[in-house]
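Need a sequence for this fold. Nothing fancy.
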């Protein structure tokens, strides 16, 4: 199969690219997805309590609003269903159940080996996301009972009346713990570092309100603009302003004090790092759940026994283990199978950490674009906003890549951008000394977050500028 554009991944980034390509009249493209359905993160994660922690009407495509969201923070199933509906117009371009085994550049384009045959493309768009490779604890021992990562929830395991261990206290754990605690006989929470938790303050949208959104799309557009502006203002509290950050920290600690009466437990749940250094979480019921008499919060996991989880001072007998331990965010799973112009893999190019000019293009890998990759995430606003900006960038670049043309960013542009990202990350909360998923564990480089507001990213990269690129014809 020969196509103009090959897109890898059918989550928000891949589907958004496909829909925009189609809207621009491009018909020669394919979306390669290893799973049997679309949805990415929202397809894979089905744990109890899963929901978006960004307002739903900001966490959807701007060109495809969804008036049917039931609440301000939509449950995961509603986002999954939204993406499945969104995929319908490009269904004929989807190749589900297709695993990309290698992608190699030659002068004739990108040659992809897949589980369902070869694909040759002029342009390669990597839209595989950053929450696809679960991080599993590297500790001694083996647990003989059911144990699974939160992103691969085993619904066959009956937790009713069971003794359950939840490893981790990040975003997934905060959402699933209250649900698990309702069913389990006992729960032990193995915490490496206490998170900051702010009240969620969810609001339901009634049938009348949803109908009004459907009948008056201008109201929905105005709501999205309002939510975007509110999120942008969060930048100061998370990143930019020490006073605003201190005020946000005070709100989080006030929430902890109001919800947890036990002083010893409250001390254990008090973060020991700067506000914003790790992902800030939202929940109205997490602290209530950990305060239940059958829930115990202890130290980090140090090992497994056949029927127990081990901490530094104790063994806890359990029937099931839930690993809410996050993902390998700074090591993209596709990096080892993508080979560029000189035969090097993307993983080799990134041996000192991920980097890409405009968070999208890499020297030595012509006609290749990465979505939701290096320095393209946010700690204060919606990932979909960034993804849409990157899609605009790709669509603009396509106009500079006629058939037989190779477009490649210069080394100086890529390196200069990486230096800018490093310099702008200095002094930010993320680099204040805590362990987080923004920093590459190999080098300590902050390689995940865009160190500014989403507005700035959109202004700089919402339109493609060919100046930092070299163009060759075959």
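Here you go.
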């Amino acid at each position: 199969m020969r196509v103009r554009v090959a897109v890898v991944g059918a989550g928000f980034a891949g589907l958004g690219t496909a829909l925009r390509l189609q809207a621009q009249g491009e018909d020669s493209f394919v979306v390669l997805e290893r799973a049997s359905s679309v949805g990415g993160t929202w397809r894979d994660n089905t744990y109890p309590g899963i929901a978006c922690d960004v307002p739903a009407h900001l966490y959807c495509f701007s060109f495809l609003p969804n008036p049917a969201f039931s609440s301000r923070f939509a449950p995961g199933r509603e986002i999954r269903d939204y993406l499945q509906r969104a995929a319908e117009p490009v269904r004929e371009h989807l190749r589900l159940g297709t695993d990309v085994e290698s992608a190699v550049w030659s002068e004739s384009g990108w040659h992809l080996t897949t589980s369902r045959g070869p694909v040759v493309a002029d342009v390669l768009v990597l839209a595989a996301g950053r929450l696809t490779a679960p991080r599993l604890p590297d500790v001694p021992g083996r647990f003989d009972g059911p144990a699974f990562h939160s992103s691969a929830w085993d619904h066959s395991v009956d937790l009713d009346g069971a003794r359950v261990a939840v490893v981790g206290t990040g975003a997934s754990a905060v959402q699933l713990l209250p649900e698990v605690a309702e069913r389990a006989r006992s729960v032990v929470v193995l915490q490496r570092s206490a998170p900051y938790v702010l009240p969620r303050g969810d609001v339901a949208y009634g049938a009348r309100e949803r109908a009004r959104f459907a009948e008056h799309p201008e109201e929905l557009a105005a709501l999205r603009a309002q939510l975007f502006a509110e999120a942008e203002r969060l930048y100061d509290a998370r990143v930019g302003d020490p006073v605003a950050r201190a005020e946000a920290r005070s709100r989080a600690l006030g929430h902890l004090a109001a919800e947890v009466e036990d002083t010893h437990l409250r001390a254990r749940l008090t973060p020991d790092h700067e506000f914003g250094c790790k992902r800030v979480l939202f929940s109205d019921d997490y602290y209530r759940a950990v305060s239940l008499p059958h829930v115990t919060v202890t130290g980090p996991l140090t090992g497994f026994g056949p029927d127990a989880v081990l901490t530094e001072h104790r063994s806890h007998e359990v029937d099931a283990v839930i690993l809410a331990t996050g993902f390998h965010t700074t090591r993209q799973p596709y990096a080892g199978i993508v080979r560029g112009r000189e035969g090097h893999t993307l993983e080799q190019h990134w041996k000192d950490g991920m980097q890409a000019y405009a968070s999208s293009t890499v020297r030595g890998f012509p006609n290749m674009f990465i979505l939701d990759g290096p320095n393209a995430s946010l700690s204060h606003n919606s990932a979909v906003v960034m993804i849409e900006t990157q899609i605009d960038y790709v669509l603009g670049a396509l106009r500079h890549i006629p058939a037989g043309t190779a477009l490649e960013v210069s080394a100086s542009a890529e390196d200069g951008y990486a230096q800018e990202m490093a310099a702008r990350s200095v002094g930010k909360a993320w680099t204040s000394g805590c362990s987080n998923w923004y920093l590459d564990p190999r080098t300590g480089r902050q390689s995940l977050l865009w160190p500014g507001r989403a507005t700035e990213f959109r202004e700089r990269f919402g339109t493609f500028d060919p100046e930092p690129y070299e163009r060759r014809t075959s």
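For context: The longest strand covers residues 117-126.
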